[in-house]
Amino acid sequence: MKKIFIILLIMITNFSFAQEFFSPAKNFKLTISTNSRGEFFYKLDYKNKTIIKESKLGVELVREPNLMDGFEIQKIEEKEIYEKWSPVWGEVDTIVNHCNSIIVYLKQTSTNRYLNIHFRIFDDGLGFRYEFPGQENLKYFIIAEEHSEFAMTGNHTAFWIPGDYDSQEYTYTTSRFSEINALKGRNFNDIITKSIPGEDFVQTPLMIKTDDKIYINIHEAALIDYPAMYLKVNKQNFVLSTHLCPDAYDNKAYLQTPFKTPWRTLIISDRAEKILESKIILNLNEPTDFEDVSWIKPKKYVGIWWSLHVGKESWNYADIDNVRIDQVDWNSLKPNGRHGATTENAKRYIDFAAKHGFDALLIEGWNIGWEDWFGHWKENVFDFVTPYPDFDIEEISRYAKEKGVELIMHHETSSSVTNYERRMNEAFEFLKKYGYTSIKPGYVGPIIPRGEHHDGQWMINHYIRVLQKAYKEKICIDSHESVRLTGLHRTYPNWLAAEAARGNEFNAWSEGNPPEHETILIFTRLIGGPMDYTPGIFQIKMGYYSKERERFQVHTTLAKQLALYVVLYSPFQMAADLPENYERFPDAFQFIKDVPVDWKATKVLFAEPGDYIVTARKDKKSENWYIGAITDENAREFSIKLDFLDEGKYEAIIYRDSEDAHYDKNPMSYKIERKKVDKKSSLKIKLVEGGGCAIMLKKLVD
Predict the structure, then answer these.
(1) Burial class of residue 572, CB neighbours in 10 A (0-12, 13-18, 19+)
(2) Rounded distance, CA 313 to CA 552, Å?
(3) CATH topology of domain 3-283
């Protein structure tokens, strides 16, 4: 039953109205209020402690009176929501959505316009959004800026990357709010697009830790038909405020009523582990309306990919430049001899996948256009249907089907998105003709149409169009260089994963990711959804491939690379290294072969952003459990109680760092141990600097 509350104006401090609402367990208290100017505020307390001080909400419009003040509360609707639902795939097989919903109906008296603010209070945080009902005085409008505030109580510690309209591929900085300088450390996208104005703003998800160890995560949910949100940082009063990605005209969103914005999310706990277990973002997304989801399957795959990054092979077929793909006789070109996506090489990888039980093979660089594809703002780079002369797609497709291996097609758009949309129907017909089940669309470089950004409203709508087209053709999506995820995999379960962060590839050809990177990544990027991080690199030092790469390496131990399969969740996991490197370490490779990609239950046992993560997960298809533990540059020890196990005996197969292992000095040294355990047992594990531990808990049959 909805309860309609009649509002009585009361005087509390500077506010002309205030009312309190609580989460189901009453550990959170939401206070909404208005002042004499009709401005609207909210405040959030957790366990009787203020977390978000009075923070203003409102929306600025272009060429229209702003929806910022002059509000009069018409009514408030409150109801309790309780439901259980099962995701198509995920970290758990059942999710409980339990919250109190509060919708505040506002009228701006001077314009006779209406705006609703919808709150949902959970026992682990808060979501809110703006809802514009259909109305005569506001039909079509343009958002100039959204002004949602998060007023912090002090100079907290933040784990952040700088705001960038076109990339999330940064390492994280840990600092106080007062020390944030988001104008430093730009990447290659900025050189091309000039995509960052002279403002201090950071990306979400933003992870925050207070001095009294309250953990706060700020992000958004259900990002549809609206630009991505960043957070401007006021370093004097520690107020964070929303900043939306603009278009070429510096407008943010073109809308018509009725319309609902994405949810702004706050996940809060006094235990870091609970931040990672929260399902607020998923619960704030709409259920899928897909009638048939039986074809959507989590996958483990291999790929002609890492060899390209380490320089053994190339994406391009010939060494030429200034290419027009419609004006080249590809059969007359002299091949460079390094091309990776050849028929012979594809068959070799298919054999490897079939032998070791992998579901699929990703092949990059199979189609014409890679000779001159990046950074030139070219409209017509790829056509997505023409293979290179040395890539016999019919034979490869036949061979893969014979071996029981699916194929994943790479659609690098070079961010010429209008070209991709123009060719999409033909490209998807090509996919279906040759039996492809998944694609990896890539968006490297500046967006065409020019002036649009990866995180702007136009591109957000593009990603959704691709998902909808893929659903009609029963194709799964693994997007790279796309917007960061916001839980939309509940609504579109064929969106198996995205990159949208600094992944493992950077270790092949740059200074790489520091040892703490993954311990922060799970508290930031992965809050919104799974990441295609491409773990499993066994050959840690890149000097193995060439003298020019001696300064590059993966800043982890080999055991930590195994642990990432458990710690960094994805239903789309790659065994990213070369087949020959796995064949050098068959006993360690066994863990990658065994570890599932779909889970029945997940328990975060120990966690601290920037320091360490220990996670346990139960396989959805068996009684086996898996544990992954990773650390930063510091060695650590943990005692893990196995009381989450079911009754009965288990064999613990422990893949750990050797005593002399070290992420820099001796990264590939590991040991494998076996023990009999049950739910009364404990396991003591030691992680070396930059190290990790992966454990399979195999249920024994009586």
Answers:
(1) buried
(2) 17
(3) Beta-galactosidase; Chain A, domain 5 (2.70.98)
Helix (H/G/I), strand (E/B), else coil: 519: helix
Token pair, residue 131, equals 């809802």
Helix crossing, 343-356 with 393-403: angle to 10°? 10
* DSSP summary character for residue 312: S
> pLDDT digits over 451-471, tens only?
999 999 999 999 999 999 999
Q: Which tens digit of pLDDT belongs to each residue from 235-277?
A: 999 999 999 999 999 999 999 999 999 999 999 999 999 999 9
Read off the pTM. 0.95
* CA–CA dist 281, 276 (Å, integer): 11
User: What totals of helices (H) and strands (E) does the chain contain, helices first?
Assistant: 13, 37
**In one letter, which amino acid is 11?**
M
Which residues pair with residue 662 across a beta bridge? 666
Number of neighbouring beta carbons within 10 Å of residue 133: 14
pLDDT at 328: 79
d(CA 186, CA 192): 11
Q: What is the mean pLDDT of residues 416-420?
A: 96
Per-residue pLDDT, 9: 35
Q: How far apart are CA 298 and CA 497, in angstroms?
A: 10
Mean pLDDT of all residues in 77-105: 98
Look up residue 539 and give its two tokens.
């050959």
Q: Which two three-digit tokens encode residue 121?
A: 């209070």
Which token pair is 653?
């197969």
Q: Which residues are bridge partners to 253 per DSSP? A: 143
**What's the rounded Cα separation, in Å, for the pair 578 and 548?**
19
- Per-residue pLDDT tens digits for 283-332: 999 999 999 999 999 999 999 999 999 999 999 999 887 777 777 787 88
CA distance 171 to 185: 9
Instruction: List, by residue number, the catalytic residues.
Output: 505
Q: Are 317 and 371 in contact (CB under 8 A)?
A: yes
CA distance 111 to 90: 46
Query: 294 burial class (0-12, 13-18, 19+ CB within 10 angstroms)?
Result: exposed
Q: Where are the domains of the chain?
A: 3-283
Question: Cβ distance 184 to 219 under 8 Å?
Answer: no
Q: Which of these, 597, 569, 589, 593, lies nearest to 668 by C-alpha position?
A: 589
